[in-house]
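Researcher: We are triaging several targets before committing to wet-lab work. For this one, the compound of interest is LIB3CWND. I'm pasting the protein sequence and the ligand SMILES. What I need is the predicted three-dimensional arrangement of the protein with the ligand bound, expressed as structure tokens, so it can go straight into our comparison scripts without reformatting.
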Amino acid sequence: MTDAPEQFRPRRSVLYMPSSNKRALEKAKSLPCDGLILDLEDAVAPDAKASAREAAATAAASGEYGRRELTIRVNGADTEWHDDDLRAACEAGPDAIVVPKVASAEAVHTLVDALERHGAPDRTSLWAMVETPYAMLHAEEIAAASERLTVLVMGTNDLVKELYAEHVPGRAPLLTGLSLALLAARATGKAILDGVYNDVKDTDGFLAECRQGREMGFDGKTLIHPGQVEGANTAFAPSAEAVEDARGVLQAWEDGRGSGVVTYRGKMVENLHVESAQRTLTMHEAIQALEG
Ligand SMILES: CC(C)(COP(=O)(O)OP(=O)(O)OC[C@H]1O[C@@H](n2cnc3c(N)ncnc32)[C@H](O)[C@@H]1OP(=O)(O)O)[C@@H](O)C(=O)NCCC(=O)NCCSC(=O)C[C@H](O)C(=O)O
Ligand SMILES: [Mg+2]
């Protein structure tokens, strides 16, 4: 795996909001989340699709969301709204266009062609939602299909539905799918975001799921409520101890220059641990720069 600069962009907390909800669109301007997904899909009722599309395009073109990475989630390719959504999103030029239920490399190629045909600016990348069993089994070909695809987004609600599974603490029914998507993202140098936690009042359950996602290797979590932002920001940032440890590892390596292996606080340090420590510090600095 190579760490492209793209992978050091903090995406700890990426908040969905219905583009039909004016209060949410307004509130998002003051929330400390790393990214926003202005939704046109599941959170928007059919009779509100057209006005939500207009609101999302206006918001994305407004320049009023500061440092937050701003994206629009269009309706799926098999819906009557997809083409109009894609055209409007391309014209608005957000940081990324999020497409639900992407399941093959061919689908990615079709989307990238459409982005070009509709004149999306070069800065607008494609985020693919992987949320079906078929997508899990083809995650690597999806992730590798185009340079323009920069992020995989887990759709865990749809995945639970399609698997006939259940939402349970620890997410045992989803672990194979989550791991396949993670392997695909890391093997192809893409970022990957964990799915949402539906119970907005269950803080303990949410924080446990953040910890699990972080430990598995996700870059951040998609969210549905402002109350989830702070927990995700903390969980997906290197902790103070991790930063101190990373500095210590680099210092121990420096002190033992020329030796292929040293120890730090009793633990073996080799070249690969030094790379991990450097990654931790780079991410820490990127977060500080973002928040500063
Ligand atoms: C889940 C909600 C419907 C809860 O809404 P509500 O009861 O109104 O929440 P609160 O009263 O606690 O809200 C307090 C204030 O915060 C604002 N708010 C709420 N949610 C958001 C948000 N997502 N972004 C921005 N601001 C938000 C309220 O407007 C209140 O503001 P104020 O009155 O000014 O204080 C609601 O949170 C919600 O709609 N969430 C997003 C739902 C969504 O987008 N769903 C689609 C994505 S999830 C998905 O589909 C994943 C995937 O596809 C899969 O398969 O898993
Ligand atoms: Mg979904």
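Researcher: Any quick observations?
Model: The pocket of magnesium ion (ligand 2) is lined by residues 42, 100, 131, 155, 157-158 (CB under 6 Å).
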